[in-house]
Amino acid sequence: MPIPQSAEAISAIYRRNIFPDMRVTWGSHPNHLRHNDSPGCFRCHDGSHTSADGQTINNDCTACHQLLASGEEKPKILNDLGMK
User: What is the mean pLDDT of residues 14-27?
Assistant: First the structure.
């Protein structure tokens, strides 16, 4: 990719992630991905967030995620996606 196109791409990425007028930058909020450094999904999917009518947010991972492989040494899905 030529340098001018690279600069344009980097600027576009920056504009999608940094909002100086709102004082929001890439590091403004903690990273809640995974469960190693933060409760991740379980900040809300912990069974304690209940609506007025008594419903709680489901804590089953498949409520939001579709698991394509789990515990496989060489999952077929990686080959199907051209990643192996």
Answer: 77
For 65: left if phi > 0, alpha if psi spans -120 to 50, otherwise beta; the answer is: beta
The DSSP secondary structure of 61-76, one letter per residue, reads GGGT-----SS-SS-H
**C-alpha–C-alpha distance, residues 84 and 40, integer Å:** 28
CA separation for the pair 81, 84 (Å, rounded): 8
Print burial letters for 62-73: b (CB count within 10 Å at least 16), e (below 16). Answer: eeeeeeeeeeee
pTM of the model: 0.40
Q: Identity (one letter) of the amino acid at 71?
A: G
